[in-house]
């Protein structure tokens, strides 16, 4: 269903059961799949796919996508060119998903969060409000990022300590956790199941093999405690 004041570009494919809120602007050659719901004032760039279904290889360990919920994009969302948003994810209001980014199934993105260019957020993740994931960040499946989290460009995360070996690994999959106000520097790597505490910081280029307590700065390979985060950088003092 398209409202009277929404604008569709050339070559769009809009399937049955799609809901477009008032004032949406849809770019050229966009595909919006059945059941997708866009709120008021959503802008979608060219060549996007909204409501995609994941491909599932025969040997995949992912849950099946049966009875998956629809894709929901909140009011005033901004979706960049060539972005792909899968069904079963929910974006809050004023969320920006930049060019070439991918947000997979069963993901929630909080209000006013920015998903940068080329970012991949894998299945079954939650990202809080007012977060910023910069260019080419990779958030592994089953991760949780709370509000006001900052992740710098090129950060890599992992959820499999067995690196694809043995069937038993499936019982131990665990993504990363970044608590409120946590920050991760450019090019850092966070290993499976690790937690970055409230207002804590992992320095650029570090490899995290242990949890970081609240308001500590860790650096190095492997990362170790360096110093406390200065009080003027705590969220409560901003």
State the main characteristics.
single chain; 238 residues; mainly beta; UDP N-Acetylglucosamine Acyltransferase, domain 1; twelve-stranded mixed β-sheet; nine-stranded parallel β-sheet; globular
Any overview of this molecule?
The chain is mainly β and 238 residues long. The protein folds into two domains: 117 residues, Hexapeptide repeat proteins (UDP N-Acetylglucosamine Acyltransferase, domain 1), CATH 2.160.10.10; 95 residues, Hexapeptide repeat proteins (UDP N-Acetylglucosamine Acyltransferase, domain 1). It is built from no helices and 31 strands. The strands form four sheets. The protein has a twelve-stranded mixed beta sheet, with no helix packed on it. A hairpin with a 4-residue loop joins strand 30 and strand 31. The N and C termini lie far apart (43 Å).
Please identify the structural class as seen in this structure. Answer: mainly beta
Weakly predicted, low-confidence segments: none
**CATH class type of the largest domain:** Mainly Beta
CATH fold-level label of the largest domain:
UDP N-Acetylglucosamine Acyltransferase, domain 1
**General form:** globular
Tell me the number of helical segments per DSSP (H or I, 4 or more residues long).
Answer: 0
Number of domains: 2
Instruction: Specify the CATH architecture of the largest domain.
Output: 3 Solenoid
**Helix share bin:** under 10%
